[in-house]
Amino acid sequence: MNNQLGLWIDHQKAVIVSMTETGEKIQEIRSEVETQPRRSGDSPLKGDYEALQVPADDSHQKFLTQNLNIYYDEVIDHLRDAKSIFIFGPSSAKNELKERLSRNNLGVKVVGVETSDSMTNLQIAAKVREFFVE
């Protein structure tokens, strides 16, 4: 095995398992992405002004996209030196990242993309080992 990476990803965190000749290493990257808008202030208002406390959809979407871009760039920085990359996870993040890798000329390194449930770090490492042993 020569620098093979497995990546479990959703919009909240990424778990990278590096498989090398000397063993495996697990890294976790947390995102700052907040998918649900929050109200400002300590308690919800009653009356006509409550809607003003929740950000408009377009401004929330811009903020979400900006945070996802920062998160994906950080993940990509950890994947650049890989010889092959296996991506899996429960949400659309895996496909969004694969698209982004293709735009960064790293798409050829992706050897598999699968949908999977939430997993512990040890389960993720086991799935990556199983994928690259086959």
Strand adjacency order, main sheet: 3-2-1-4-5
- Structural class, from secondary structure content? alpha/beta
Q: What is the multimeric organization of the chains shown? A: single chain
Largest sheet descriptor: 5 strands, mixed
Radius of gyration: 18 Å
| Low-pLDDT runs | none
Q: Give me the CATH architecture, please.
A: 2-Layer Sandwich
Number of separate domains: 1
Tally the helices. 3
List keywords for this structure.
about 130 residues, 3 helices, 5 strands, about 35% helix
Describe the structure.
This protein is of the alpha/beta class. It has one domain (4-35, 55-133): Nucleotidyltransferase, domain 5 (2-Layer Sandwich), CATH 3.30.420. The chain is 35% helix and 25% strand. It has helices spanning 57-79, 93-103, 121-133; strands at residues 4-9, 13-20, 23-30, 84-89, 110-115. It has a 5-stranded mixed sheet with strand order 3-2-1-4-5, with helices on both faces. The N and C termini lie close together (12 Å). The model has no long low-confidence stretch (mean pLDDT 84).
Write a concise synopsis of the structure shown.
By secondary structure, the protein is an alpha/beta fold. Helices cover 35% and strands 25% of the residues. The chain has a five-stranded mixed beta sheet, sandwiched between helices.
